[in-house]
Design a protein that fits this description.
431 residues, mainly beta, five-stranded mixed beta sheet, four-stranded antiparallel beta sheet, 5 helices, 42% strand
């Protein structure tokens, strides 16, 4: 993946800037109709990656829902980068009148009352991706621009260093994922086509649990120099950049990778380090993929051809369906963990789109094609910069966390009437 895919800021000519601003103002005017929650927060630096922690605390005393999430900075060359643990404090409101029972906080000073930084860990290099360990939520893996993977225990003091550094990927990269079934496994891919599979044993778990801020950072270049309690297996993609890799969520022995060579490769970690399946899936480079939380065979991909494609890996010759509404490169696709038919896509057209696979094949009537294809549920237009990453809220069916290249972080949840067939609201969202 070329570095220019993630610019530090967008460049517009005056005409484009005017049209973006007009569209943003129109969207902002309609937000009371479209959202139950919308909080916009200005970060010090852009972020390429974000993820919710699983924990949630609904306080009965102050009527506030507390949630935490991790964000990695993408600062300029002269500035320090951080792995940040942040928290949101969303009031629980109820009411029958329009706009009551809703939370809106647009970018500004007041947003710091809703969102704040709880911890900032000094990080070496920009954070291309971060992933929270599924069964140990205090453990976060970060993928640095220098190619190294850092393992953090965020329960420790924010002055702590990483508990481990894995440096087998010698090139920069954006691919990183924990195994959700065998949760001691982590994969990392780089721009030279090398995928590293790390397996951590109980010695690693003990080391992480008792690590303190004076710990030595463990470095290695060969498998014989691996930190104690870590095992390595490597996979080669013929020198082509690995832009994303994800474990299959239900069995955990399979993972997929997508590449600059327009291919999807599927691998079995129990067998030799060659893919058991490879197809050319898009006409341009592929930036993202995701396996379903609910169906072991379903896979999404998105890429430089502005398309999202839905695949069944049992019939891996052509996609089940193509989703077409983005006007620029797609950088992220994410299945909803809460609803088996929903997923999100986002990228360089500065939008986040929510899709409903249950609408595939529905007829388009009465001019509905003007609002997009029938599967398009909603278009979020709250960002003025490239949407670098999104994460579904694990406790809200329609809640999303998103970050962009203009330093904006947003927490939002669409009005559930949009999903439950309120056509007027749905059309307002996609106009």
């Amino acid at each position: 993946m070329a570095d220019e895919t993630h610019p530090q800021k967008d460049e517009f000519n005056e005409q484009n800037l005017d049209s973006v601003e007009e569209e943003y103002l129109y969207w902002k005017k309609n937000t009371p109709l479209l959202y139950d929650t919308l909080v916009s927060h200005l970060l010090e630096w852009p972020a390429l990656s974000c993820q919710y922690f699983q924990a949630i605390d609904e306080s009965k005393t102050d009527g506030v829902i507390h949630q935490s999430f991790a964000v990695g900075t993408f600062a300029d060359d002269q500035s320090q980068n951080y792995l940040m643990v942040m928290g949101s404090r969303i009031p629980v409101l109820n009411g029958d009148m329009l706009n009551q029972g809703k939370v809106f906080e647009h970018q500004g000073k007041n947003s710091t009352k809703v969102i704040k930084v709880d911890k900032k860990f000094i990080h070496t290099g920009e954070i291309n991706k971060l992933r929270i360990c599924p069964n140990q939520q205090n453990i976060i893996a970060t993928k640095s621009e220098n190619g190294k993977v850092y393992i953090w225990n965020v329960d420790l003091d924010e002055k702590s260093v990483p508990v481990m550094t894995l440096s087998d990927n010698l090139a920069t990269g954006f691919a990183l994922d924990w195994n959700t079934v065998n949760q001691t496994k982590l994969i990392s891919g780089d721009n030279k086509g090398l995928i590293c599979l790390y397996t951590f044993d109980r010695q690693f778990e003990a080391k992480v649990e008792h690590q303190d801020k004076s710990a030595e950072i463990l470095k290695h270049k060969q498998s014989s120099e691996l930190p104690e309690g870590v095992h390595l297996k490597t996979f080669e993609n013929h020198g082509m950049a690995i832009n994303d890799c994800r474990f299959q969520r239900i069995h955990g022995s399979l993972f997929g990778a997508v590449s600059d060579d327009c291919s999807i490769t599927l691998w079995d970690i129990r067998s030799k380090n060659v893919p058991f399946m490879r197809i050319v899936a898009h006409i341009n480079e592929i930036f993202t993929l995701d396996f379903s939380h609910h169906d072991e065979f379903l896979l999404l991909t998105g890429g430089g051809d502005n398309l999202v494609k839905l695949w069944d890996i049992r019939k891996f010759t052509k996609p089940i369906h193509e989703f077409e509404d983005h006007s620029d490169k797609i950088l992220k696709v994410k299945w909803s963990p809460n609803n088996e038919s929903l997923f999100s896509s986002s990228g360089e057209d500065k939008t986040v789109k929510l899709w409903d696979c249950s609408k595939i094949g529905n007829d388009v009537t009465n001019g509905d094609h003007m609002d997009g294809p029938p599967e398009l549920l909603f278009t979020h237009k709250g960002h003025k910069g490239i949407v670098e990453d999104t994460c579904w809220n694990p406790h809200q069916e329609f809640g999303i966390l998103s970050v962009d290249s203009q330093n904006i972080l947003q927490i939002w949840e669409i009005d559930d009437k949009i999903y439950y067939d309120d056509d007027n609201i749905s059309k307002a969202g996609n106009k």
